[in-house]
């Protein structure tokens, strides 16, 4: 795959996060990692061990059992982290549906 920009990777990333449940699990993992990072600053540095465990744990679950794909973090760790936070920001600001439409993706009907 020939990725030349953040926007190219964003499109690639969103193709691997097409189901709303996958994005929700990523949101939870990112939120938990932010909370654990703040706890490591406020309370004790031991919480730093939970930062990657929560982020990767939730995303691995969503990819393997919901999306049916393998996480793109393995090949692109930094761009994937950037897109995780971008996804988180779009979801927290309510702009995810608009972004999915911009990318030409239709919402996927899911029960869970």
From TrEMBL:
One Pfam family matching this protein: Mpo1-like
Keywords: Membrane, Transmembrane, Transmembrane helix
Ranges annotated as spanning the membrane: 25-48, 68-92
Alphabetical list of InterPro entries matching this protein: Mpo1-like
PANTHER family membership: DUF962 DOMAIN-CONTAINING PROTEIN (PTHR34205:SF2), TRANSMEMBRANE PROTEIN (PTHR34205)
Designated name of the protein: Uncharacterized protein
Species per Swiss-Prot/TrEMBL record: Pisum sativum
Lineage: Eukaryota, Viridiplantae, Streptophyta, Embryophyta, Tracheophyta
């Amino acid at each position: 795959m020939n990725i030349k920009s953040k926007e190219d990777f964003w499109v690639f990333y969103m193709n691997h996060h097409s189901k709303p449940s996958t994005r929700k699990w990523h949101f939870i993992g990112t939120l938990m990692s932010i909370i654990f990072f703040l706890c490591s600053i406020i309370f004790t540095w031991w919480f730093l061990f939970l930062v990657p465990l929560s982020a990767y744990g939730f995303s691995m679950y969503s990819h393997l059992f919901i999306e049916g794909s393998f996480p793109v973090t393995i090949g692109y760790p930094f761009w994937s982290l950037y897109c995780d936070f971008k996804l988180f920001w779009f979801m927290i600001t309510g702009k995810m549906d608009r972004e999915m439409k911009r990318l030409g993706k239709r919402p996927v009907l899911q029960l869970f």
